[in-house]
Amino acid sequence: MREHKCNSKPLFLNGAAATPASPSNKKFWEFRNAAETGGTAELLLYGDISRTSWWGDEVTPQAFAADLATIPAMDDLTVRICSGGGDVWAAQAIGAMLENRLGTVTAQIEGICASAATIVASHCKVVKAAEDATYMIHPIKVNPNGFVDMEGLKQLMDALTVMRTNVLNQYAKKTGHTVEEVAAWMDATSWWTAAEAKENGFIDEITESNQTAKIENRNGALFVNSIAVPGTFDDAPEFVRNRAVVAPATTEGFVNNTDPAGKPDKNDGGNDMEFKNADELRNGCPDLVKEIVDEAHAEAQKQERDRLAAIDEIADAVPSDLVAEAKYGDKACSAEQLAYRAALDAKKKGHKLLDDTEDDADTSGANSVGGAAPDGVSGTGTKNKNQTDAEKRAMVKNLFHPKKEG
Where is the composition biased (Basic and acidic residues) (predicted)? Predict the structure, then answer.
């Protein structure tokens, strides 16, 4: 069990799996009513429990409760679990809501039920598991979010103690064993087969599975049915490691490889679809493609709004024709590029002014008119051509880059 950071507050986790972070408003659960399943309503918990913030954004206990309320309270509910764990608070909240239902709540473990996922399962009235499923419990851990002083550390210890007590009491209630017995199992980090978990009281019934669980070693990480499990592959017990064999990725059963596999299909526990081009992806996963395209469009629109806003901020200092070209012309550009173009334009105009000034002076004969010599200095008083040019260039330069006073 370890802590997950969210909104700068420590969140205690019971074995959060090492999967990529999901969008902050992404639900980690899915409900299916009886009409969709053709039988009993279902709650799917595949992957981390609260990979996202359970307490922030749109993913909240209230959101879960609202979804649960769409299933009539008297109806039976099957909770399908293939999870490596997650947020302890989320697991306890979900478990309490499930336990308070009037209908029978049955947990069906598919592949792996580890860490915080076992808290949810322990709240269910009946717990079933596929005969090749794996069950694991281990201690709660916390990783403080940043530096912690003595008082902060004490508060974390107090919270950890309360959390541990609650989980142990729930395990004892489910199994019929004493708190001391289940505490010994937890502290030892216990991995069990379905039969062993049943013997210890965590599972009530073992069921046959139509599909064999797939165990993988992905660069040292343990995955079951494409779900990440706490710890490393080597941390798993021998009975788990031995069931991972070298085989082609498309072979049914256990696979020991480093090829990434997708999130398991919630109907069959796996998805071996392979797409060779964009058209196949569009046809095979139209909803996913639409989501990606919509996100890309939204991001493009945001970037365009930001670009125009940045140009507007410097528009007063830039010629209007350059601003129009930068915004809507064939050579549209960013505010930074517009500033560079404006600098080049000013430089060109400065050179032209200098050349025009020299031409006017030559035409009027001003360059041939001598100046009075300073007192005590002999000479004709006529400056040479190079001096005149230098002064003119300095004058023009000062128009565009005036010297600071003082």
Answer: 262-277
